[in-house]
Design goal:
The chain has 1 helix and 9 strands, in the order αβββββββββ. The protein has 104 residues and is an alpha+beta fold.
Length: 104
């Protein structure tokens, strides 16, 4: 009987941890003002190391205004390609979609 009670308690704990992790995802923020046009930036620096990947600059929303974030070189990840972040227009406003590595 004690074993069964311990199993039930363990299942309860696992369920609660799973639920709390699912709820802890990123909050989605919407901006009512459209982002400015992308800046044209010429990358003049040479790659800092072999196979470095360029992440384009972008407009980030900071303290109720858009602020330009410069591009930078990223260390490559074997078997992945870099997808730049972007602003997506939705019925609720503009939503930022983070840049990320995508499996080839």
């Amino acid at each position: 009987m004690k074993f069964l009670k311990n199993v039930v308690i363990l299942l309860f704990i696992v369920t609660m941890v799973s639920f709390s992790n699912a709820c802890a995802g990123k909050r989605v923020h919407y901006v009512r003002t459209a982002p400015p046009a992308r800046k044209v930036v010429v990358v003049s620096k040479a790659r800092p190391y072999k196979n470095a990947v360029w992440r384009n600059g972008y407009w980030k929303w900071h303290r109720n205004k858009y602020v330009w974030e410069n591009g930078k070189w990223l260390k490559p990840r074997a078997g992945f390609i870099w997808i730049d972040g972007h602003w997506k227009k939705t019925p609720h406003g503009w939503q930022w979609i983070d840049g990320h590595w995508k499996k080839r």
